């Protein structure tokens, strides 16, 4: 793949950069005995297209919280996945407003038009989601979900309320951000709530940092015995119950959506 300094990457070029990151990341995780599986549209692409969904410029994996913490410890102590790659999360850059970690390519620069404040640098990435226990439907569990829901709504307002836009949603979002300005403290608070439901003891696990109504339940066994499935010219780990997961997430997932519903992340993505 030709690197053309200052020029925009096509969607296919973005996919190939992500694929290269994922290949190196897979080797790193396997070497350090860190469990992972493909998630969301990346898993759907593996099953339906044997690779990327043609119009998708995103790549997601999930790692159980205990393994996720070990991965961060390795990265924070100077271990590199491969040359040209660096990790990004809210502990590295306070303008990064998610509870996930991104592995980025330093030969690229991405500026998503839908994000309020941009991190200092962000290249083409693979997203790593910590997988936590889903809070049970007990009084403490319901209270935990409520706290998550409220804090996530504030966080989402912080991310997507773009300054200068005058529509009602942005004005409300900017007002919320003025009332609750400490975004870094909120990141730590959300993380603390997420960790209260142990991955190892929970009946169901999932990407709990997402909005409550969007959680797609998994079981810990999906990480104990994942299956290697083809993805482009590589093989990556997927949940053993991938059919159940995809049906819950997408319904009839083998049917292509209409053109107007084929979502693309609008990003200004260039070679450095």
Describe the structure.
There is one protein chain. The chain has 272 residues and is α+β, with helices and mostly antiparallel strands. The protein has a domain at 11-134 and 206-267: Beta Polymerase, domain 2, CATH 3.30.460. Helices cover 37% and strands 17% of the residues. The protein is built from eight helices and ten strands. The protein has helices at residues 11-31, 40-48, 65-76, 139-160, 168-179, 183-194, 221-224, 242-250; strands at 37-38, 60-64, 85-88, 101-105, 108-112, 125-133, 205-206, 227-231, 234-238, 267-271. Strands 1, 2, 3, 4, 6 and 7 form a six-stranded mixed sheet that branches. A hairpin with a 2-residue loop joins β8 and β9 (234-238). α4 (139-160) packs across α5 (168-179) and α4 runs antiparallel to α6. It is globular and about 50 Å long. It starts with 10 loop residues before the first helix and ends with a strand.
Write the layout of secondary structure elements.
Blueprint: H1 11-31, E1 37-38, H2 40-48, E2 60-64, H3 65-76, E3 85-88, E4 101-105, E5 108-112, E6 125-133, H4 139-160, H5 168-179, H6 183-194, E7 205-206, H7 221-224, E8 227-231, E9 234-238, H8 242-250, E10 267-271
Parallel strand pairs: 2-6
Antiparallel strand pairs: 1-2, 3-4, 4-6, 5-10, 6-7, 8-9
Q: At the third CATH level, what is the topology name of the domain at 11-134 and 206-267? A: Beta Polymerase, domain 2
Structural class call reads alpha+beta
Strand residues, percent:
15-25%
| Share in helix | 25-40%
User: From the alpha-carbon coordinates, what is the Rg to the nearest angstrom?
Assistant: 18 Å
Shape: globular
Distance between the termini: 14 Å
Query: Low-confidence parts, pLDDT < 50 over ≥5 residues?
Result: none
Q: What is the total tally of β strands? A: 10
How do the helices and strands follow one another from N- to C-terminus?
A: HEHEHEEEEHHHEHEEHE
Assign the CATH class of the domain at 11-134 and 206-267: Alpha Beta
């Amino acid at each position: 793949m030709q690197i053309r300094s200052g020029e925009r990457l096509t969607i296919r070029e973005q996919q190939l950069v992500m694929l290269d990151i994922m290949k190196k990341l897979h080797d790193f995780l396997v070497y350090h005995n860190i469990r992972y599986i493909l998630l969301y549209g990346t898993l759907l692409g593996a099953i339906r297209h044997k690779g990327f969904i043609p119009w998708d410029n995103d790549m997601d994996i999930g790692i159980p919280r205990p393994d996720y913490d070990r991965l961060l410890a390795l990265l924070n102590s100077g271990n590199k996945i491969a040359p040209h790659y660096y990790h990004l999360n809210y502990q590295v850059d306070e303008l990064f407003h998610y509870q996930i970690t991104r592995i980025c390519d330093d030969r690229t620069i991405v500026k998503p038009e839908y994000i309020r404040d941009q991190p200092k640098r962000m290249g083409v990435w693979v997203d790593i989601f910590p997988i936590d226990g889903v809070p049970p439907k007990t009084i403490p569990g319901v209270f935990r979900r409520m706290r998550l829901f409220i804090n996530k709504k504030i966080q989402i307002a912080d991310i997507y309320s773009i300054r200068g836009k005058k529509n009602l949603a942005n004005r409300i979002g900017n007002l919320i951000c003025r009332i609750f300005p400490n975004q870094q403290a909120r990141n730590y608070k959300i993380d603390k709530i997420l960790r209260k439901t142990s991955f190892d003891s929970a009946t169901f696990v999932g990407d709990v940092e997402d909005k409550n109504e969007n959680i797609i339940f998994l079981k810990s066994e999906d990480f104990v015995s994942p299956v290697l499935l083809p993805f482009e010219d590589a093989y990556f780990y997927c949940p053993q119950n991938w059919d159940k997961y995809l049906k819950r997430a997408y319904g009839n997932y083998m049917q292509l959506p209409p053109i107007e519903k084929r979502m693309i992340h609008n990003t200004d993505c260039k070679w450095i």
